[in-house]
Amino acid sequence: MSRIEFWFLNLASLLLVSTISFEMYSSHQLDATQERTARAQIPILQDEQIQPTARRMVQRVAQGAATDPALKDLLTKYGFQITPRPDPTASASLATPANPTAP
User: Fold this and answer.
1) pLDDT digit string, tens, across residues 17-72
2) How far apart are CA 81 and CA 72, in angstroms?
3) Given this model, what pLDDT does residue 67 score?
4) Which residues contact 90 (CB under 8 A, 6 or more apart)?
5) Which of 47, 58, 89, 98 is the most buried (most CB within 10 A)?
6) What ranges do the domains of the chain cover?
7) pTM exceeding the 0.85 threshold for the entire prediction
């Protein structure tokens, strides 16, 4: 084996080792990023599951607010507006929160 072949093979092996090392580092970083993303999605998914139930609950409170001023004050305190439904059998329904950042 000549000196040129020796140094060429050493350079090729160094390049291969550095490529494998970079691949391992990139794989680790990708796994960490995917884990952080999955943890961040949990509250969003839970909110999507709870939202229809909370909406129905606020609608029921809004229906009761038509006859109880304390319930009406509670809804307005947290930024919900009560608008009458077009259906004459129902007394009130929930529009949208006036302030979406309100608890």
Assistant:
1) 999 999 999 999 999 999 999 999 999 998 888 888 888 888 888 888 878 888 88
2) 9
3) 84
4) 63
5) 58
6) 3-97
7) no
Check: CB of residue 92 under 8 Å from CB of residue 84. Answer: yes
* Helix segments in 66-101, DSSP class H: 69-77
- Give burial (CB, 10 Å; 0-12/13-18/19+) of 93: middle
Q: Which amino acid is at 25?
A: Y
Sheet strands (E) in 1-103: 80-83, 93-97
Structure tokens at 93: 């329904």
Cβ–Cβ under 8 Å, residues 77 and 86: no
- DSSP 3-state of 80: strand
